[in-house]
Each structure stands twice: as C-alpha cells, then as structure tokens.
Amino acid sequence: MSDVTGRQTLTAWDLESAVDYIERVQRSDGLILWYPDGPADPWDHVESAMGLSVAGRNEAARRAYRWVADAQHVDGALWATYGDSKDGDGSHASDEPRKETHRSAYVAVGAWHHYCCTGDRSFLEELWPTVRNALAFACRQQAATGEIYWTVGADGAVYEDALVSGCASIYKSLACGAAIADELGNSDDRDRWLEARTRLGEAIRSRPDRFDRTWESKSRYAMDWFYPVLCGVLTDDVARQRLEAGTDRFVEEGRGCRCVDDEPWVTVAESCELVISLAAVGRTKRAREIYEWLFQWTDDDGVFWTGYQFEDGEFWPGKRPTWTGAAAVLAADALSGLSPAGELFLEAVFD
After folding, report:
1. Distance between CA atoms of 345 and 98, rounded to whole angstroms?
2. pTM, entire model
3. From CA 44, how far away is CA 326, in angstroms rounded?
4. How many CA atoms are closer than 13 Å to the CA of 59, on its beta-carbon side?
5. Are 206 and 233 in contact (CB under 8 A)?
6. Is the peptide bond before 317 cis (omega within 30 degrees of 0)?
7. Is residue 185 included in any domain, yes or no?
8. Backbone angles phi, psi at 89, to 5 degrees
9. Gap between the Cα atoms of 162 and 142, Å rounded
C-alpha cells in the first residue's frame, strides 16, 4: 500500500500500533518512557521521537525534542536515565547519576531527522542551541587519540574509557550536527564538528586499543559488531566484510539478531538496526528477509516485545519498549521510504 507520493505506508508494514503505543506512553511534558511507568533515557527517547516523525506525528515529536531542550544542563549534557527516580524528583533513575556522551549528543541526529521529515526550518532553528550545546559537551570529552570518553560523573569527573558503539553513535551525531550547522550558516561549528568526527572515525577504525581498556570487552554485543556500519564509520567493501564476518555469531535464522553472541536471545531493536546496516551496504534482500522475521515478536495488538529467549521459548524480558517499535519504524523507512528521511542511515549525511 502506498500514499500519493508512491511511498509505502505504516499500514502496509503493520506499524500503526507500534507508533500509537509510543504516543500513548509519552508523558505530558514530552518525555517518552521505555514503557508505562518505566524509566527513560535520552538516546532511546530521541529514537522514539524519530519514529513519531516518520509517522507524521509531528506535534508529539516536537514535544519530545522540547523536553530535551528543557532537560539539558548548562554544560550541554543530560542525565543518562530519567523517570522512576529513587528520590522522586524525576531527574534520574540511577543510584550513581552520570552524563553519557552518546546519549546527550544523539539529539543532533533527531533534530536533523525531524527536519528531513518535515522541512520545518523554524523548529530546526529552535533546536539549534540544544544541538550545539550537546555536541560541545561530547567534544570536550574527546581524547588526544580521537576517541570520545563514555561518561562524566555528577561530580564532573570524566571516566576515561570509550565504547565502540557509543563512539559510532557520536560519529553520526557529529555528521548530523554538521549538516544542521551548514543549513543554518554556522560554518565554524560545522568545521569544528567535522574535524572531531574525522579524528573519532580514525580512532574507531584504527585504534582498537583505545576502547574497552578498563572494563571487559564489549565485542560480544551485536552493537559493537554493526554500529560502525550503521553510523557510517565503515562503508563499502570494508563494511560488507565486517557484517559478513559476524553473521554466524549473531544472526539466528528465522528469528533475528542476538543481543550478545553467547546468549540464546534475539532482540527486535538490534535486529532492526542490523536491517538498516545491511541496507546501507546494498544487502537489501537479506535486510528485508530478516526484517520480516521480526513480526512474530509482537503482542496481540501489534506492539513489539523486547526480544525472544529461544531456549526457554518465552518473551524476555516481558516488556514492550517504545524504542523497539521506533527501531522497527526506522527500519521500514530505510527499506521502503516511508518518509523523506528514509536514507538518513543509508548514505553519508555530510562528507
């Protein structure tokens, strides 16, 4: 089923229920929780807002981005988690509050995505200070060797280690921030972010010794495998080779992508992100095949579960995260152009 532009629709993919669910879970202040009465985090909040934008739920998406602007600290960061706060003030859900660089910076991807969907320049201008401050926070944590440190504590102490997946996400955020800066005529910020992105990309591609130095390697996680492809750090043959090299470890035929390679658990969000990564390297047929497996992991209303534990034969954990449905919407957009932003992860945003 297509609309008048020739694009496929949410209805054709059976995704209306997933978007309805995101909108129902969104709080009146704009924050999109993981699920009703649950926590939230800035990265997944933005991803959920992106799902709303693809679906044309523009007012709900704008409220989500205004929440980011309102919640942003003077240093440009946000807490890693929100909602279900132990002390009841709604500021964070962690016993040790922290400001994670990739979660704070992801608003740049959401802002550019919403602009691509809507062409709403006035709202892009409204979000500009939030984007600028968020990326400034992330760039202040960039090491001389190019990687961007993972987090800053509530006391301002920087945790000097880096995540491959987190840095890949920031790489995309910097590209989208540069695109926004270019659109709005802010060449100094554009050039600064592109330079930081170049150094970050070199670190991810060439300096594996700069990651996972103070904790156990995250290489068992699927996100470490495909995020450099999803976020454009690796492209073309190198990207295809990386995806092919990890397929046997992570892909369960007929089910989806494992979250970690040593657990019998496929997760819908990681599977959708793998779908987009495959589409980005031209493996569209395989991407569609994997995507179509995922609709068995919905409830009776068409809302996606987190994932499926295939040894125990049960949905685990028994939650239906908003960001999982949003990932499904973004994957469908990449495969069939539901919105004008469908190519955001398929082509270079700024090179």
Report:
1. 28
2. 0.95
3. 9
4. 1
5. no
6. yes
7. yes
8. -90, 0
9. 10
Give the distance between the most distant pair of CA atoms in the chain: 55
Tell me, yes or no, whether 3 lies in a domain: no
Burial pattern 218-229, b for ≥16 Cβ within 10 A else e, equals bebbbbbbbbbb
What's 107's domain CATH number? 1.50.10.10
Helix boundaries (H) for the chain: 16-25, 42-54, 58-71, 101-105, 107-118, 121-140, 164-183, 187-206, 222-230, 236-250, 268-280, 284-293, 322-336
The reply to whether 6 falls in a domain is no
Question: How far is Cα 66 from Cα 48, in angstroms, rounded to an integer?
Answer: 14
CA dist., res. 273 & res. 222, Å (int): 10
Q: Is residue 269 part of a domain?
A: yes
Q: What's residue 96's pLDDT?
A: 72
Structural domain span for residue 223: 11-336
Rg (CA), the chain: 19
Residues 6+ apart with CB under 8 A from 206: none
Nearest to 175 by CA among 142, 197, 201: 197
> C-alpha angle with apex 289: 35 to 43, nearest 5 degrees?
30
How many angstroms separate the CA atoms of 164 and 147, rounded? Answer: 9
**How many structural domains comprise the chain?**
1
Site of tokens 């082509």: 347
Under DSSP, is residue 280 helix (H, G, I), strand (E, B) or coil? helix
Local confidence pLDDT in tens for the 351 residues of the chain: 444 344 578 988 999 999 999 999 999 999 999 999 999 999 999 999 999 999 999 999 999 999 999 999 999 999 999 986 443 334 445 557 999 999 999 999 999 999 999 999 999 999 999 999 999 999 999 999 999 999 999 999 999 999 999 999 999 999 999 999 999 999 999 999 999 999 999 999 999 999 999 999 999 999 999 999 999 999 999 999 999 999 999 999 999 999 999 999 999 999 999 999 999 999 999 999 999 999 999 999 999 999 999 999 999 999 999 999 999 999 999 999 999 999 999 998 766
The closest alpha carbon to 310, from 293, 324, 327, 325, belongs to: 293
